[in-house]
Amino acid sequence: MTHKLAFIGFGVVGQGLAEILYSKRQSLKDAEGFESKIVAISDFKKGSLYHPDGLDFEALLEAVQDGGTLDSYPKADGLITGWDSLETIRKSNADTVIEVSYTDVSTGQPAIDHCRAAFESGKNVVMTNKGPVALAYQELSALAKKHGVSWGFEGTVMSGTPALRMPKLTLAGNDITEIRGILNGTTNFMLMRMDEGASYEAALKEAQALGYAEADPTSDVEGLDARYKIVILAQHVMGMPLTVEQVECTGISQLTPELIEQARMEGRRWKLIATAKKENGIITAKVAAEKVPLDDPLASVSGALNAITYQTDLLGPVTLSGAGAGKAETGFSLLIDLLTIARARETVQS
Ligand SMILES: NC(=O)C1=CN([C@@H]2O[C@H](COP(=O)(O)OP(=O)(O)OC[C@H]3O[C@@H](n4cnc5c(N)ncnc54)[C@H](OP(=O)(O)O)[C@@H]3O)[C@@H](O)[C@H]2O)C=CC1
Ligand SMILES: N[C@@H](CC=O)C(=O)O
């Protein structure tokens, strides 16, 4: 069967997934039996399109990448324009909603409502938006279950690097007592560039141009994005209730060239580290810039790479390193969530 997709948001990550689905369509069909079509896109400024028979991948990407909007997409019989996000979720014939709108770090909205509307309409959601997972994990997990649909959010932590799926599947049976890692690509990239002599402002601009930063980069530089991610890890991987407010949080905006130089003289490097620790059934978590010694494995994680160490009772420390942000890297996280849904559907049908 062909998977019918509705995109809410069509920025860096949305286009990243669309490019992968188009460029790998044959190999996905051959290797996985996976076929998809985009039936709808609803984006604030770029516009909204819906066609129940599917939109043309190439024409969509050409319109948005050449003109910045979907306005030049060819008009065809049956094409509907102008639906907002909730209309698109409720009225389209999609079976899966791809939620790739902005992460709102105060309320998680409107993405939480997007998930509610999708689940209540019997649609799966795959998303990279961290708000709903960090702020409404219990409610939305229960709602998806009640409606018999799937909720995938691998890309909310470390883009396509399997920071959620790897521990849940392959470390199952372990007690994970501590998680420590570099969870934000923008700040890790900025710290590398500042260590090389770039100014804070220039380093941030570069990270934005490379598609790593949040729409409001305050979330990156003040540690709010990493705070959401450690909350997601605590809830989903450690199975511990943790709220955003319980996580002490500082970012990197206070780091001056002098502080960076001083760390270098001490044989250390600044890194934005997120930690969650479980002791006697109580979880504590924080996000803060730390001067790590050069022999700490996290010291050599550079650019937009991220790394995470899971402290397990049966295996000891297990470290995973890989991309933390980026267009194709995060587009891939949505693909693996889609393939997981497709494989489960095949298993049920066979
Ligand atoms: N970039 C990355 O490397 C990663 C990003 N993420 C997360 O993925 C999500 C998407 O990121 P990214 O693609 O980089 O962000 P972009 O800002 O490039 O794209 C977001 C798109 O969503 C649109 N949008 C925002 N709110 C709505 C809404 N309510 N309805 C319809 N469209 C909306 C925006 O519209 P417009 O701008 O046209 O007004 C924009 O085109 C974010 O939540 C981010 O936190 C997660 C992991 C990595
Ligand atoms: N802005 C985020 C994007 C991925 O979550 C980051 O830089 O890590």
From TrEMBL:
Its EC number is 1.1.1.3. Belongs to the homoserine dehydrogenase family. InterPro entries: HDH_cat, HDH_CS, HDH_short, NAD(P)-bd_dom_sf. SUPFAM superfamilies: Glyceraldehyde-3-phosphate dehydrogenase-like, C-terminal domain (SSF55347), NAD(P)-binding Rossmann-fold domains (SSF51735). It is an enzyme of class 1 (oxidoreductase). Keywords: Amino-acid biosynthesis, Methionine biosynthesis, NADP, Oxidoreductase, Threonine biosynthesis. GO terms for molecular function: homoserine dehydrogenase activity. Residues 162-339 form the Homoserine dehydrogenase catalytic domain. It catalyses: L-homoserine + NADP(+) = L-aspartate 4-semialdehyde + NADPH + H(+). This is Homoserine dehydrogenase. Pathway: Amino-acid biosynthesis; L-threonine biosynthesis; L-threonine from L-aspartate: step 3/5; Amino-acid biosynthesis; L-methionine biosynthesis via de novo pathway; L-homoserine from L-aspartate: step 3/3. It comes from the Bacteria.
